[in-house]
Amino acid sequence: MAATRTRDYRSGGQPPNGRTPTGGSGGGRRRKKRNIWLVRLQMVLAFLVLAVLAGALGSAWALTRIINNLPKSTLEIENYLPAGRSMIYSSDGILLAQVATQNRQTVTIDHIPMPLQNATVAIEDSRFYSNHGIDFRGITRALFHNISSDTMGQGGSTITQQLVRNLGIAGLGHEKTFSRKVKEVVYAFKIDQNFSKQQILEMYLNQVYYGSGAYGVQAAAETYFGKPAEKLDLAQCALIAGLPQRPSGYSPYVDKAAAMTRRNIVLGRMRDLAYISADQCATAQEEPIILAFPKAPSTSSKIYRAPYFVNYVLKQLTNKYGSDFILRGGLNVTTTLNYQMQQAAESAVTNGISSVSYLGVTDAALVAMDQKTGYIKAMVGGISYQKSQFNIAADGRRQPGSSFKPVIYTAALDSGLISERETISNAPLTLPGANGKDWSPKDDPGPSPRNPTALEAVAESLNIPAVRVLREVGVDTAIHYASMMGIKSPLAPYLTLALGSSAVTPLEMCRMYALIANQGQLPTPIAIEKIVQSDGTPLEEDQPELETTSISVNAFKQMDDMLRAVVTSDAGTAHNVFADGNPPDVRGKTGTTQEHRDVWFDGYTSKLTCVVWAGHPSKDERTGRPVYLPMTGVAFGATICAPIWKQFMVAANTILAAEAAREAAHKKPAAPTTAAEAPAANSPASPSTSPTPLVEPASGSGQSAPPSDPTADVSSDGKSVTVWVDDSSGLRATPNSAGSHQETFAAGMQPTTYADGSSVSSAVPKTTHAKSDQSAPSSTTTTLPGSTPTYHAATVPSPSAPAAPAKMVTVTICVESGMRATEWCPETIDKQYPANKIPKYCTLHKPPPGE
User: Fold this and answer.
1) Residue 109 belongs to what domain range?
2) Does residue 813 belong to any structural domain of this protein?
3) What per-residue string of b and e applies to 583-598 under the rule 16 or more CB within 10 Å gives b?
4) CA 480, CA 482: separation in Å to the nearest integer?
5) Are residues 276 and 364 in the same domain?
6) CA–CA separation, 515 vs 563, rounded Å?
7) For residue 842, is pLDDT > 90?
C-alpha cells in the first residue's frame, strides 16, 4: 500500500486544482465581501420595515386624530340649514320679496319627483342604496376609466361623500389632501349609519349647485323651466340630474347642445339600470329643451311689492335675528299686510297727490292698522320708492298740527277738568315765547266771538281753546298722557304742544287713534304674523298685544263723539269731504302745521284706523339737510289728506266686507252672549277685554224683525236704555237700515248718532258754563283744584341775556335749520357752543294757521 503524502502549503505552494482551501487568504476575502453585502441588505430591509412600521403607525396616529376630531354625533348635520332664499308674503298669500345670498328654496323629499331622484342616483351613485357611504368598486372603476380615456368623466365619490363636501361640515371642502379625504370617507360612513337613504338624498338634492345661480332642485326647476320641482317631466328631471358634474358647462343657458348630450347620457343610464323602459328613454331623448326664460334670471334679493313695508319688516327681522340669519334664507315670513288694501293705499296716495299737485304738495305717506289686533294692513312710506327709500310712515318725524289735539283733550276729559259739552273761552290769548317774543294762537280764517263747547272746539279745530285746556291740564301731565296713548317720540314741554309742535311719526299717530277707537285698549303695531323655517317648523308667531290703559272709558267715549263731530258737524273741518256719509262710521281729525308744511288726516272706522300725511320734502342745497317747504295757503289736511284717506277707506271697507262674506260662508258667527263680547256704546270698535263694558245685549237680542219706529227708545229704567242699533254701522237704527237689533246700554251711553248721520235730540248738552280766563296774564301760573300745577311759559334766556360764565354752553338747536330752536321747531338736538357764538333763533318754523 502506497504511503500517503501530504504537501505543506504554508510555504507558499498552490493546490493542484488552483483552489484556495478554506481558511486561505483568497477565499476569506470573497466570503467577507459576501457577508458585508448580506449585512447591508439586512440593514436596508430592516430600515424599510421600520420605515413602513413608522409610516403605518404615523398614519394610524394621524387617522386616529382625524377620527377623534370628527364630531361625536350627527347633531351638526341635523341642525344644518342650507343657505337659500327667505320669502316674504302678504297675509293673503302674495309674494312681496325674496331675500337671498343663494338662490335656494329647500323642499322635502316627497315634493321631489321620483324620476329626478332616480336620475340622480343613476348618474351619480348607482349603488347608493346598497353601499355604506363609500363605494370602493366605484372608486376603482372610475380610476381605471379615467386613466384609459381622454376624459375625466367619472368620479369615485358617492352621493354621501359629495354631500359631506358640499355641506362643508367639520371644515371639509374640496381641497386635495390626505386629511380631507380621510375625513370625507369616515364622515360619509358616519352619515350613512345615522341617516336613512331618503334623508341623505333629500339633503343632497337641496344642497348641490345646478348652475345659473340655482342651488337645490327647487331653484333649478324654477330657473330652467319656471315650475316647481314636483311638476318636472322625465326629460327635465334628467337634464337637472346631469348638471352637478359641470354646472356651468352643462347649463342650457350656456350650451344647449352640451346640456342635451348630458341629459341623454343620464336617460341612457336610467334605462340601463331599469329605472325607465327603452321606449320612455327614446321618447324623452327626443324632447326639445324649452327654457322658461331667454336668459338665466337674476338670483339676488328682490322686492317685488310694497317696498317700504318690506324694508320695515326686514329691519325688524334683522334687529331680532341678525342679518346673517335672514340672508342665509330658508324662511317663509307671512306678514300682516293685506295686498289688496296695499294696492288701494298706493292708488289713493298717487291719485290724491296728483289731483292736488297745484297746491305745492309732492309727497305723502299712509299707514293703516286693524285696531283690534295692531296688525298693519297697509303702509305707503312715500310717493316713489325709486326716488327716496326713506319710510315717512314709520320713520318720518313731523309736526302733527291739530291732529295731536285729541291727546290734550283726552287728558282733560280723564282728569275731570272738562266734559265734551262744557264751553271754553275763545278770547284772544297772548303768551311769551321761548325766543323772548310773545305769541298768540290764532285760527284760520280768524277769531270767533263765541265760546265753543269742547266738542265744537275739536270739530272746528280751534287753537285758543286747545291752548287754554293744555294750560289747565299742565304740560307735563299732557306729555304723560301722550306716552300712555302710544306716543314715544320726545315732546318739548311748551304750551305749543296743544297745536302739535313736537314731531311724531304717522305710525305713532295711527296707534294713538287706534287706542281711541278701542276705548282704552292700546294695540302694539305688528307687521309679522308668523315665520316658518324651510322644514315647516314654526320659528315665530306673533299674537295681538293689547295694553289696557288707566284712562277712563268715559273719556274715550267723549273723545269719540268729538272726533265724530269733525266729519258730521256742519262746521267740522272735514265735513265737506264726508258729507255723503261714506264711509258711514268715520271719526277723525285734520291737522295743518305752520306755513302749511305738513298736513294730516287721522281717523278710524269700526274696522280700521288710518293716518295720512302729506308735504313737500326737499333738501337744503347749502347744508344738505332735509327740509320741508311751505305749500300754498289753501293746503290743509281737509283738502289734501282727507280725500286720500276717504278713497282708501272706502276701498278697504269693500275688501273687508268681501272677507267677512267669505268667512260667513264657512262659519256662521255666534251672537254676543256676554257684555264683554258685545260692541261698546257709539263706538266703532271695542275689544272684548274692556275693563268696563258699556253694552249689554237685551234679553233675546240678535236679529229681530224691523221695528215700527227704530229711532225711538225701546225701554229705559233710569239705569239702562235699550235702543235699536244698525247692524252695519253700530249706530242708532233708522227706517232705512237694512238690518237692526236691540242692544241695552248704561244710561247716557247709548249711541247719540243715527246711521244716516243725524243726531239724537237727547244728545243736547246738559250743562254749559264759560271758563273765566278771558285776560289772565300768560306769565302767571293757574292751578285748578285737585290738579297738578300747570305750565308757566317758556323761560329760555333771550339773546340779550348776559352770557354764561362758562366757556361752552349747551343750546337746543333746530335740526332742520341748524339755528337755535323755538317752541315751534319739530325736531331738536342739544349742542355746545362758545358763549359768544350762540346761533340766532330759528325763523323757519312759525305758529300754525289753525284748522
Assistant:
1) 103-286
2) no
3) bbbbbbbbbbbbbbbb
4) 5
5) no
6) 13
7) no
